[in-house]
Write a structure and sequence with these properties.
Radius of gyration: 20 Å
Number of strands: 12
Largest sheet: 10 strands, antiparallel
Distance between the termini: 55 Å
Number of helices: 7
Strand content: 25-35%
């Protein structure tokens, strides 16, 4: 067994590798009357280079957690970026490779007022198709669309489109919700913009804000403001419910499947976090 293979095995069998990560996970599962029964996974190197007598390695750790909650079982998956250095044959400075939690595009004010000038139009939302898309592409990227380093909202928009949500507003990026050729609206790709679009739209893709997360169904959307500063950072799509009827979500950046909706196990989570819950097509 080589050094890297041994390293992956050590990560998967020892909580000493990531004490904060496992502490957050265990606390969250305990509060939900759930437990991790088994852990599987591997590491996949995607970048390695050498300088200053060091080999710098970036990799993705794909974890599969087999969860038992009462008499209900499900699998949570997560792909987490890490990095470390090889120095004199030893692994050092092993740490989480922080990813951004906000899409990097500069976002002007959306023309929400323009949305209300259009008559209300309903669409038939196929929740099953949206969820099937979220399950198919949660850890890969559909080549029919652009992909981003901060891909969460782009991914959710694709899921909504697969569920039949109609586009409108092209080619004005500040208007509507759409993807066309090599261009797209801000609401398609930016978490902050999609959150405000869903709060105001009465045409094309529409959503209704609800107060309680348990009101959401598979195919619905959750928006996250991790710092509680009014800047919305992240978007997920509900794909299932746990034994207590609480949402499990899929997301990109970091890629996750059947993750508990609250994100309390995330490095981005803070006590000031704010959420918005949207049912789609209502």
């Amino acid at each position: 067994m080589g050094k890297l293979e041994s390293f992956w095995l050590d990560i998967l069998t020892s909580e000493k590798s990531f004490p904060k990560f496992w502490a957050r996970k265990k606390t969250l599962f305990y509060e939900r009357n759930a437990e991790i029964v088994r852990v599987n996974g591997d590491g996949r190197v995607f970048s390695r280079h050498r300088y200053d007598n060091k080999e710098h390695i970036h990799y993705l750790m794909h974890l599969s957690l087999f969860i038992k909650q009462y008499d209900y079982f499900y699998v949570e998956e997560q792909v987490i970026p890490y990095r470390f250095e090889f120095i004199n044959g030893k692994i050092v400075n092993h740490q989480y490779a922080m990813t951004k939690t906000m899409e990097s595009e500069t976002v002007p004010s959306l023309q929400v007022g323009d949305v209300h000038l259009h008559p209300s139009q309903r669409f038939s939302y196929d929740r099953r198709a949206a969820v099937q898309y979220a399950e198919r592409w949660w850890n890969s990227y559909n080549p029919a669309f652009e992909s981003f380093s901060d891909d969460c909202t782009n991914f959710v928009s694709q899921c909504l489109y697969a569920g039949g949500a109609p586009m409108w507003g092209a080619p004005i990026r500040e208007r509507g919700w759409w993807y066309e050729d090599n261009n797209w609206s801000f609401s398609w790709s930016v978490a902050h913009s999609l959150r405000w679009y869903l709060s105001g739209s009465t045409k094309g893709l529409t959503g209704k804000e609800v107060e309680r997360v348990e009101q959401l169904l598979p195919g619905d959307v959750i928006c996250y403001d991790f710092q509680g500063d009014g800047r919305w950072d992240h978007t997920t799509i509900v794909v299932a419910k746990d034994a207590d009827g609480m949402p499990l979500v899929n997301a990109h950046t970091d890629n996750s499947r059947h993750r508990y909706w609250s994100y309390e196990d995330s490095t981005a989570w803070t006590p000031n976090i704010q959420y918005k819950f949207f049912t789609i097509g209502e």
